[in-house]
Amino acid sequence: MLFGLGAWATLPAVIGGYIGNPNGNSGWIEGALAQGGRAGRWPDNALDLDGSGAVVENKFAELPLVGGWGRRPLELATLRLQNMVGVSIQNWGSLAPDVDKHPQVLTQLGGCVVVDEKGEVLYEFKDPGICAVANFDDVLAAL
After folding, report:
1. What predicted TM-score, i.e. pTM, was given to this entire model?
2. Parallel, antiparallel, or unpaired: how do β-strands 112-115 and 55-58 relate?
3. Contact 125/138 with Cβ under 8 angstroms?
4. Which among 1, 51, 117, 137 is most buried, taking Cβ atoms within 10 Å?
């Protein structure tokens, strides 16, 4: 899986987070970084937020040559770092598998479960590797 064999899009997704994409979309990344910043997650210096938590300035937009790209270099990688440090590592005790019961389990992100008001599963996606994510159209179709 480290080399993209477990999930075909692993390496392109990881590399894309570092090098950016002129045709990408970073609106959701900015929103997620702002949410993390408001929650006090590090790194918190990519955006300037006002007193209400709204984005005043995105420092990635100031990068020479690539500031106008749809997804700037290191923008997505910064969000991944913020999630790893501020969510995964900070809450490792709650998130980690019980290695005594399940020693073969490797933790990974990318799964998705949608339940109804009774807790019945409407949609489930299990990450087959690393960096795989649920198809949003499939999620909506299940609803």
Report:
1. 0.72
2. unpaired
3. yes
4. 1
Kindly state the DSSP code that residue 123 receives in the 8-state scheme. E
H helical segments located in 44-119:
75-83, 92-95
Element (H, E) at 47: strand 47-49
What SS3 state is found at 29? helix
In terms of Cβ atoms closer than 10 Å to its own Cβ (0-12, 13-18, 19+), residue 131 is: buried
Distance CA(128)–CA(66), nearest Å, equals 33
- Under a CB-based contact definition with an 8 Å cutoff, are residues 17 and 80 in contact? yes
Report in angstroms the alpha-carbon separations of 136 from 17, 29, 113, 122, 141.
20, 17, 12, 14, 9
